[in-house]
């Protein structure tokens, strides 16, 4: 049951929910991110914090909005989890995942992205990638699939923040992104700083990685010319190549 004071606070929030239509967060956006999160974590185990969040959602909904409005929201350390099959993963808390989803929507509209990143909305999706791969199979002798996990883990954090800086004038967004990049992982009471790469399994990471592709990927005319000289062509996650001699690249 929601207390009387909480009801008054909720009514106050309802009155101001549209005060900043261009703000990257609002009650409507928080609700949308919440429904996304519930769907994403619907199969999580009973001891996961998503069930606590869902049970107490009216209170957390208000708390998240007020914390973001006061510029006091901070990301928690990720949890180091070991799955039944022995795989290790780093998991954001449910509240943090919700806010990161809000940031993903916001940055998705702000950041330039490569058309080769077909996983992004409006870039064609998996069907376009499969079609491009199929169309290129008759032209190239070799197909090499890139390692997405290795790509995420190899990203230089300082360089990434330098690339992001011109697009993030909002100090609150910048602070949250900074701590998303320089994240901390907790395992059994021990805390570790992650100084290389960005995390996987996060709604924000594909957007951030897509910007990094433009900055570090095959986008310039010189890089495209080198690929053509090598007889190669790049698509999302794939590199196509023909046999060539090393001396041809000099």
Automatic annotation (TrEMBL):
Pfam family, one: EAL
SUPFAM superfamilies: EAL domain-like
Superkingdom to which the source organism belongs: Bacteria
One GO MF term attached to the UniProt entry: cyclic-guanylate-specific phosphodiesterase activity
Occurrences of domain EAL (ranges): 211-243
InterPro entries, A to Z: Cyclic-di-GMP_PDE-like, EAL_dom, EAL_sf
Protein name in the entry: EAL domain-containing protein
């Amino acid at each position: 049951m929601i207390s009387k004071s909480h009801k008054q606070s909720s009514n106050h929030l309802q009155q101001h929910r549209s005060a900043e239509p261009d703000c990257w967060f609002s009650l409507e956006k928080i609700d949308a991110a919440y429904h996304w999160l519930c769907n994403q974590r619907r199969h999580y185990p009973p001891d996961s914090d998503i069930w606590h969040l869902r049970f107490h959602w009216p209170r957390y909904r208000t708390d998240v909005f007020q914390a973001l409005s006061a510029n006091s929201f901070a990301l928690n350390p990720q949890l180091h989890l070991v799955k039944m099959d022995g795989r290790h993963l780093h998991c954001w808390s449910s509240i943090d995942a919700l806010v990161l989803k809000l940031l993903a929507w916001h940055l998705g509209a702000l950041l330039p992205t490569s058309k080769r990143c077909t996983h992004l909305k409006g870039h064609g999706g998996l069907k376009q990638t499969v079609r491009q791969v199929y169309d290129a199979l008759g032209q190239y002798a070799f197909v090499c699939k890139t390692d997405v996990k290795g790509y995420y883990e190899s990203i230089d954090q300082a360089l990434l923040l330098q690339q992001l800086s011109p697009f993030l004038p909002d100090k609150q967004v910048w602070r949250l992104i900074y701590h998303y990049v320089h994240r901390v992982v907790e395992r059994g009471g021990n805390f570790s700083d992650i100084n290389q790469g960005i995390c996987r399994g996060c709604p924000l990471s594909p957007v951030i990685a897509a910007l990094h592709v433009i900055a570090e990927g095959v986008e310039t005319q010189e890089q495209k010319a080198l690929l053509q000289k090598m007889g190669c062509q790049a698509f999302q996650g794939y590199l196509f190549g023909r046999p060539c001699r090393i001396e041809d690249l000099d």
